[in-house]
Amino acid sequence: xxxxxxxxxxxxxxxxxxxxxxxxxxxxxxxxxxxxxxxxxxxxxxxxxxxxxxxxxxxxxxxxxxxxxxxxxxxxxxxxxxxxxxxxxxxxxxxxxxxxxxxxxxxxxxxxxxxxxxxxxxxxxxxxxxxxxxxxxxxxxxxxxxxxxxxxxxxxxxxxxxxxxxxxxx
Length: 170
Description:
This protein has 170 residues and is an alpha+beta fold. It has a single domain, classed as Cyclic phosphodiesterase (Cyclic Phosphodiesterase, Chain: A). It is built from five helices and seven strands; from the N terminus they run βαβαββααβαββ. The longest helix has 14 residues, at 15-28. This is 2'-5' RNA ligase family protein.
């Protein structure tokens, strides 16, 4: 019997922030590798076999949580790409709660310190990444937005498949 596909948990973004970041991702992410809209990953690989328990926890948490405010505060070099850094004490606290709940099942990647960001370019030559970073820095100004929901996805090796949404309503 095969293990169920892992789950990815992301943060849904407000309409204006998503539109801006997704347009940049579509413009600068290599087309052949860009199978996803812009996203902020909270957890990269949760156990698919625990879908029901994970969904129950997310539903309960989202129901009592207001939409977390976000500040898109910096551009980050990824070496072979560019990301927008996100500052949000409320989001960091939310993720910490979930990480504590799921500590026993977190992968090494998900045990690392949380550095929220939205990647708009990746898997390109370092020169191309440096060029985009310099271009974006010329007109970058921090802005605020908010999270709208936690989005749970199945990862089966290709484009992600939506599993569930948990809107913030606290």
